[in-house]
Amino acid sequence: MKLTEYLEKYGKIMGFLEKSFLKNIYYEDYGERGLDLIVPEVSIDRNDHTNRKWRIDFVITTKKNKFAIETDGFNYHSPGKVSRQRWNELNEKDNELIRQKFYSIHLTRDQIIDEPQEAIFQLRRSINFDPQLCALFQNWNNDNRPTPHKVQVLVLEKLKETRKEKKTRGLVALATGLGKTLLSIFDVLQTNSRRILFIVHQDYILRQAKNSFEKVMPNRIKEMGFFTGKEKFTKDAGKENINIIFSSIQTLTLSKNLNQFQSEEFDYIVMDESHHTAAPSYTKVMEYFAPKFFLGLTATPERMDKKDVLKFYEDNLVFQMDQSEAIKQGYLSKLNYKGMIDNVDYTNISYNGFRYDVKDLNKSLMINKRDKAILKKYSELVKNKKTIGFCVSIEHADYCAKIFKEAGYKSISIHSENKDVFKDKSLIERFDHGEYQIAFVVDMLNEGIDIPDVECILMLRPTESKTILTQQLGRGLRLSPKTSKKELLVLDFIGNYKSSPQILESLGISNLTELKFDKEKEIYYYDNDGRRVEFDEEVVDIFKYLKSTSTKQVDEKLISDKWKNYGSFVKENTKIGANLFWSIGKKNNNILVHSYILEKIYLNLSNFKTSKKLDDFIKTETKKKFPTKTMEGNRALFFSKILGFIKDTNPISFSEVFNVFLDALNKKKSNLVSDIITEQLEKFIFWNDNFSLTDRHSGRRKVNEVFKIYPIFFINQIIINLNKIGFTNNQISKFELENFIFFANNHDDLNQITERIVEYRNSDQRYELEKFLKKNNRMDSRFYSTLQNINYYNFSTKNISIKNDYFEEIKKKNTEFSNLLADNKIIFFDEKNPNVYKNKILYKKGSFVDLVKL
Fold this sequence. Notes:
Elements: H1 3-10, H2 16-35, E1 38-45, E2 53-61, E3 66-72, H3 84-99, E4 102-108, H4 109-114, H5 116-127, H6 131-137, H7 150-164, E5 169-174, H8 180-190, E6 196-200, H9 203-216, E7 224-227, E8 244-248, H10 249-252, H11 255-258, E9 268-271, H12 280-288, E10 293-298, H13 306-310, E11 317-321, H14 323-328, E12 334-341, H15 358-365, H16 368-381, E13 387-390, H17 394-406, E14 411-414, H18 427-432, E15 438-441, E16 456-459, H19 466-474, E17 487-494, H20 502-506, E18 516-518, E19 523-528, E20 531-536, H21 537-549, H22 561-573, H23 591-603, H24 611-625, H25 638-642, E21 646-649, E22 652-654, H26 656-666, H27 670-683, H28 703-706, H29 711-724, E23 731-733, H30 734-739, H31 750-762, H32 766-776, H33 783-786, E24 793-795, E25 799-802, H34 807-822, H35 834-842, H36 848-853
Parallel strand pairs: 3-4, 5-10, 5-11, 6-8, 6-9, 7-8, 9-10, 12-17, 12-20, 13-15, 13-16, 14-15, 16-17
Antiparallel strand pairs: 1-2, 2-3, 18-19, 19-20, 21-22, 23-25, 24-25
Helix pairs in contact: 2-5, 7-8, 8-9, 22-32, 23-24, 26-27, 29-31, 29-34
């Protein structure tokens, strides 16, 4: 029904306030089709045996729900404004509306006339859970084809303006659920783009994106195709008609795939989840393509430094609406967050300032007492709602699925080790289609997955990042036109973990004083603009304690809580007896001294029939030649052992590579000597059996199981990563090595440590932070000094850098190393088979990569 027709039909029975509500509040969002659902001045029975009626200003009737809208005038019904009798009558009216299964909504005159925008937001938050009204609000056509809703229309106009300003790139930051993919399609249409590339980081999201394109652009379905590891549609493959390509970043970042496209081949490129842009794989693709327009989409631009992301989009942030504003304006579901005390004590769980040790978490979280507490709360508060449970690990996700299944719930764990996750009928799709009520995941559903009817989020892991929590909440805040989801229920089990105060910031609570205390329920709560937050009293006590103790470690207000936690980690792991970092011991590690004494020993080998004779010889000869660098017996040959020059000291025996090294020394081939030393250092691995294979102070874990890392390759990977994101001096400082890199355990730590160094370098308080960490760092590692023996490093007492002439060669070598690592071909030390590493790699002449290939 048209508005003019509606007013002609009902105008005489509506007053000024009712007409203002209809035209300026309701019609704004729900349009002509919405007018078919709303009727003014409706009477209902009072059911009080008097045959009297209650009058309702408006009734909205949909297929599933009834809404009673009251436009209260100046005398809003409260005890201070109306008589006691009238107050009681109005309360009885509300009770009767509830009995007759109406949803009752009150809007005041002040809201409707003076603050219409706030009235619009309140109405949306009150009725958009209804599928029919939600579909009208989201502007879906009768044929189920989406058209732009109000925010999308606004962004489309902003995109038009940015192109008028001759911008060819732009970043749009929209909270999850506001339709970023659809927005990109609408902009593709308004630019009349022909060749389109849509890039994401997961294959499943690609299929979702393609489905959205098909709904909006059914006339171009035959032009759509995938470009992934399994399926490639290109002109070379005889698919000339494929003009809309959906590709994963993992596929495009491979040069052989990227080079199949011209840099200016596409009219329009969409980069989804653009907060990852600063990562090396994204950087490579971003710098390669030059389309007519490059659109970046993200829900969390604050995940990395905004400048790092925006620089790839011409510093052009086109539009931004965060999660809290989207909830307030009714574009997302209301949030009902319950932070409940967890019965896990995190005090003795290993924590490095950024995250807890996963193995320790598994042991602490998978216990019967905790299972029962979680199941009890779930059965009380959730019942049959579709749920995503976020876990700490694959093992934890499988465990939770088993526990809930045994309790009678249809549950499944979804993670990267599920063999059928990315098949045509994936576990994600089966969960989406209702085959399971609960999906337990690790990080898989943090980004990009669109399952609107999720009504509950279970937080079964510590919240260690504001950004990740925002993403996880976004999985359930989407409006659902197919169901009657009234809100997202979040059950967060919070223990005394150090990062828990970040939850407050994620929920829009800047200070604990914003929380109100309900004595009867013994909870603290925060209720504002569609977000209802509750915390158990014990949880708030944890927040207060952690916020207080976080400032005791150092008297510096300029140091953030996160860095203070990291400082504690550094202090704990560099104290005497803590050897789980990069340390090669305090013995003599001077390569010149070792070369000299090894040659002397080799030439007099027959004289050392006892270990004592060897000890005496080493001490005497090194004291003559190097008075200040004397070696204290054969124990001081430790550095030569880890370099692979000698196999053993009792009796002493030499390796194949030492014979080549000695020959080069004798022939004074300095370049070859330098090359061999560099190659041997590249082969060095923490920890082999030259070290003690257990922590002799605690005995808790075998260090060779902790360390799976080739340090020189790892350092080069860090430098190359930093180069890709704009740090082009190819340099790492001694401070960064000793406070970040030396704490890596394996090559999986690469991106985490790169981001930590970037955060340190971009910190406004960098120098204060450096002083703070130095104060906490007690490391006596000699490893840094050994780096002067790498022939492609510029070395100083403060930093190292890869020499310009060597940089491309090192990049190529590290690419080969990374490929071998990805293919599980890298040889790490195995305590059960120690000679595999030694005989195939350490004792052989040749580069590490070449030897692995053999």
